[in-house]
Amino acid sequence: MTRNAKSAAATLEQHTIAAIPESERHGRPRDLFTIWFSSNIMPLTFVTGALAPVAFGLPFAASIAAILLGNLVGALFMALHSAQGPRLGVPQMIQSRGQYGMIGAVVVIVIAVFMYVGFFASNLILGGQSINQLIPGVSTDWGIVICGLVSLVITVFGYDLIHAVNKWATVLFGGAMLLALAIIIGRGLPTHFFTAGSFTWGGFIGTAATAGILWQIAYAPYVSDYSRYMPSGDSVRATFWFSYFGVVLGSVLPMILGVFVGLASSNPDQISAIHQLTAGAGWLIMLVFALGIMDTNSINLYGGMLCSITVGQTFRHRWLPRATTRGVVSTIIVAISLIGALAFQSTFLTSYVNFILFLLYVLIPWTAINLVDYYLIRHGQYDVPSFFRPDGGVYGRVNWPTLAIYLFGVGIQIPFVNTTLFEGPVARALGGTDISWLVGLVVIIPLYYFVARARLGRQAGVAAVAPAGSASA
Question: CA 197, CA 172: separation in Å to the nearest integer?
Fold first, then answer.
């Protein structure tokens, strides 16, 4: 189905969580490259990269290697989730009902809502700082409010406007990052640049996890929201690779810039530091950062809106809201996020590190269960109408084994975690190295696979016996 891109972008999207009819499918897999590339060109990605030398104390080469490794591995999970969109035509967290049941999925969906609000608020703080650096007469607080309101407008229009914004942003945002790198290198790096920091396995694994694995897996709960409108016949392989390369390149570029700034400046305020280091082009970088926040936060807000509506629809099964409800729910999320951003901006860095580590612990079991179920157990074959039935259809109201495996997956990571709030005994014995995410994946993937296979086998046996029993009766 062909559509005029400009008129589509200016039109209010009418769907929210309902399955997208084939007659309304549009777009091409290559559109996914631009949305995942440009939406990562923002100050939060930049600051996350700076964590390698600033928070984890790594030298330059180790910082770059950890960021590359983490993103190349983590993006595999993200892209596998993206490839589910054209096949099913529903938001990612609605599809979780196929693993957890109608009501059981609420547990992971509420966690996803928390994630969206946290990322939205974190982005707002950095967006406010960027606007303040760009226009000193505008305070950081007012910059936070401006970023929140612009993101709200984009989300109100919905899917097509989000895709359109990211198409034009790709060249501008990518070019600005390359320009910033060129200016910083061209001005001369400090003498200690390549000798500062020291390699530790704890720092290397921590960087790979937070600036790569978690960064990419955090997209998993909503990445297929932006491929669900694409025709179901579109190539799964193309959807995967355009998503993969878009998100890897879009993430690595600003993260590497963050490493450069973290090592080249002693200023603890990374936004102020890059503004100073890029000299006359600092205004352009701040402008791109501010626009990047507005763009990315519209994506976070859109996903948070879909998840919030999904929670409500769980208990009001006939409720499939449209554009008006999207606007109301989005406004509520923006209001909550603004309060959080204004309240916690002074302790941002510590709060942000703890926040993304918490997300790592709760998202790892979810993504493992979802991908194993989709690709290895059901091979993409789901009964979509059952996602919206009050009794959960073939998936039931609560899938207790899956829910138990998920909670077990969260719990088994606790001895391996290392945050400023809590350090597990195993992490302490490993010198502070946090391998909780790896333990979660290694344990949950085979555990869920064998439990799910056994459960489906029992169901198939019951289905095969039932007709014969009825006949003999």
Answer: 33
Q: How many other C-beta atoms are found inside a 10 Å radius of the C-beta of residue 428?
A: 12
Residue 279 CA to residue 387 CA, distance in Å, equals: 54
Entry pTM: 0.86
**CATH architecture designation of domain 5-363:** Orthogonal Bundle (1.10)
End-to-end Cα, the chain, rounded Å: 52
Q: Which residues contact 61 (CB under 8 A, 6 or more apart)?
A: 194
What is d(CA 177, CA 171) in angstroms, rounded to the nearest whole number? 10
Distance, in Å, from the CA atom of 179 to the CA atom of 399, rounded to the nearest integer, reads 51
Residue 401's CB is within 10 A of a number of other CB atoms, namely 14
Closest of 91, 39, 120 to residue 333, by C-alpha: 120
pLDDT digits (tens, 9 = 90+) for 110-142: 988 888 888 888 888 888 888 998 898 999 899
**Best CA proximity match to 227, nearest among 211, 213, 241, 216:** 241
418, β-bridge pairs:
423
User: Per the structure block, which two tokens stand in for 223?
Assistant: 């990445």
| CA nearest neighbour of 213 among 441, 472, 465 | 441
Q: Dump strand ranges (E) for 209-327.
A: none
Question: What is the C-alpha separation between 246 and 426, in angstroms, rounded?
Answer: 36
